[in-house]
Amino acid sequence: MNTPPSPSEARSADGPPVRVGALAPLTRPGWVEAGRHLLAGLDLAVREVNDAGGIDGRPLELVVRDTAADPERASATVAELADLGVAAVVGEYHSVVARAAATRADALGVPFLCSSAVLDALTEEPTEWVARLSPVQSRGWRSYADFLLATGRHRVAVATQPSVYWAAGTRVLRERLASRGGTVVELDATALDPGALCDALADHGATALLLLVGSPEPAVPIVRAVRGDRRLADLLVGAPAGQPEFSGWAAELGADGAGIPFLRYLPEDPGPLGERVGKELRERLGEAPSFVAFEGWDTITVLAEVLRSHGTDRAVVAGAWPHVAVEGTRGPIRFSRTPGVDVWQWAWAPVRVVDRDPADPTRFRVLHTG
Q1: Cα-Cα-Cα-Cα dihedral of 71, 74, 75, 81, to 10°?
Q2: What is the C-alpha separation between 11 and 33, in angstroms, rounded?
Q3: Which helix or strand (DSSP H or E) is residue 255 part of?
Q4: How many CB atoms lie within 10 A of CB 189?
Q5: How far apart are CA 349 and CA 334, in angstroms?
Q6: Residues in a beta bridge with 365
Q7: What is the pLDDT of residues 125-143, one digit of tens each?
Q8: Do the beta carbons of residue 89 and residue 101 sit within 8 Å?
Q9: Residue-averaged pLDDT of the chain
Q10: Running DSSP on this structure, what letter comes out for residue 122?
Q11: What single string gives the DSSP state of each residue in 34-96?
């Protein structure tokens, strides 16, 4: 379960470091590209905190652990990190993994600042220990449904795999579309190969197919099959969960991966802070940073302000969530209680539906603002 220390680990200090546990999917079956971007954002912000004097002269140190998209592993890791004396735990990308981490953190009394997982029900019961930066799934996916309706896509098919996350997303889409005369049909991507899925789409007369599946498998073969099927020439292929955000998608699919709308949590105008951090993340990653990298940077920036202002005691850190007021790369960050969400939530994270421009797949077009 151990992961090599982060490059940001303190090597010399006037006092003992303030340790923060960091969860990210760094090996398969986790979404490794997302984990790499998340860790890059976390690590860059830690370096900046330490360059500015750390936490009252003490360096901030990340203790990184790989979740590999495994909820049980994440839960055990939170317990391990608690035993190591971390002041808080941050990170994670996969919603079902973050839910397991949040549940264990709540049970153990460890503050958890979730960076990039959107499942509304991050915990089963209200908790004071958990806060989240990413927008809740219901908000983003309702916006995506509105985009579909605005473009005349009322007969929607979803290719899906068994998962609490995919099921929750399907439910949001179905409710939003049904309220405006739309329909959703589910196609089991574990039972249908790409060719059979294309047949089902043609039989149904679907106007849109949403990929509620893992990437690259089976998302990439499905896209290739649909793009190559003349019967589906007018079908919109979408991926609300954000598969096309990462460069690996474009590398796998080329032109076939463009024109596939997805949810992106970045503002149209990043502002001076976003521009500056984006440039440094690009240098660190060797490619354009995803919204996940910015979520990572914002996570540490928020936590560092809490630690400076309120101290490193775990209960005090958790008690500070409602008092946060920090300028992040994507806007001012404050936490509040949101109806239907049992954790402290940043309610105003930007939500956009974008795609990769078919004329230039390295460029993103904003199609809808939520």
Answers
A1: 180
A2: 27
A3: none
A4: 24
A5: 10
A6: 355
A7: 999 999 999 999 999 999 9
A8: yes
A9: 95
A10: S
A11: HHHHHHHHHHHHHHHHHHTTTBTTBPEEEEEEE-TT-HHHHHHHHHHHHHTT-SEEEE---HH
**Cα atoms in the Cβ-side hemisphere of radius 13 Å centred on 182:** 27
Strand partners, 356: 364
Backbone angles phi, psi at 132, to 5 degrees: -140, 140
- Look at the alpha carbons of 253, 284, 278, 112 in this order and tell me if their dihedral is positive or negative: positive
Distance CA 70, CA 53 (A): 36
For 117, the token pair is 């997982």
In the numeric block, which tokens belong to residue 64?
A: 């990184």
Measured CA to CA, the distance from residue 81 to residue 109 in angstroms comes to 12
DSSP 254: G
Provide the token pair at 81: 């990190």
Q: Which residues of 70-83 are buried (b: 16+ CB within 10 A; e: fewer)?
A: bbebbbbbbeebbe
pLDDT band at 5 (very low <50, low <70, confident <90, very high): very low
Q: Write the pLDDT tens digit of every residue in 73-85.
A: 999 999 999 999 9
**Distance (Å, rounded) from C-alpha 352 to C-alpha 263?**
6
Amino acid letter for position 241: A
Model pLDDT for residues 145-158, shown as the tens digit of each residue: 999 999 999 999 99
Closest to 207 (Cα-Cα) out of 261, 153, 146: 153
What does the pLDDT read at residue 2?
44
How far apart (Å, rounded) are the C-alpha atoms in residues 106 and 123? 8
Beta strands in the chain (DSSP E): 18-24, 60-66, 88-91, 112-114, 130-132, 155-160, 183-188, 208-212, 236-238, 262-264, 326-328, 331-333, 336-337, 344-345, 352-357, 360-369
Please say whether the beta carbons of 97 and 165 come within 8 A: no
